[in-house]
Amino acid sequence: MDYRRFGDTVIVRMDPTEEIIQQLRLVAKKEGIRLAAVEALGAVDDFTVGVFDTTEKRYHSNRFTGAFEIVSLTGTVTTQKGSFYAHLHMSAGDREGRVFGGHLNSATVSATCEMVIRVIDGTVERQLEESVGLNLLRFI
């Protein structure tokens, strides 16, 4: 991975075998990022995404392996109890044009991942909302 910061924006290049959320965590730590908007594209060969079932209040995950292009990766960086918290969604397409996606649990880069992190001045915490079953935004 390599990256450069330009004002409030960080441009990241991730390399083969790197895991996307781990690399985002590293950049956020090095740059002191507590709040940001994230978007990316690239290629992955192993990713797990989930869908939250509001009735059961739990995620159902699906793992995909093979050649996939990231169609869209978007989300936020916030904090929970003062620590890094990423909420990302990703869609990726296969060679037939089928697209799979959901809440990103993990993704391994196969060729590259180009990420843009727009740093926002401030802090937004996450807190578990029992009635929903999710860590929701809490403005402090």
Number of helices: 1
Strand content: over 45%
Low-confidence stretches: none
Task: Please provide the count of β strands.
Answer: 8
- Could you spell the SSE succession in H and E letters? EEHEEEEEE
Span between termini: 33 Å
Shape: flat
SS-based structural class?
mainly beta
Helix content class:
under 10%
> What is the C-alpha radius of gyration, as a whole number of Å?
15 Å
Major beta sheet, specifics?
6 strands, antiparallel
- Averaging pLDDT over every residue, what do you get? 97
Task: Outline the structure in words.
The chain contains one helix and eight strands. It is mostly beta strands and 140 residues long. Strand 4 (58-80) and strand 5 (83-93) form a beta hairpin. The model has no long low-confidence stretch (mean pLDDT 97).
Q: Any key phrases for this structure?
A:
single chain, two-stranded antiparallel sheet, 8 strands, 69% strand, mainly beta, 1 helix, six-stranded antiparallel beta sheet, 140 residues
List the helices and strands and how they pair.
Elements: E1 2-6, E2 9-14, H1 20-31, E3 36-53, E4 58-80, E5 83-93, E6 99-119, E7 124-129, E8 134-139
In short:
This protein is mostly beta strands and 140 residues long. It has 1 helix and 8 strands, in the order ββαββββββ.
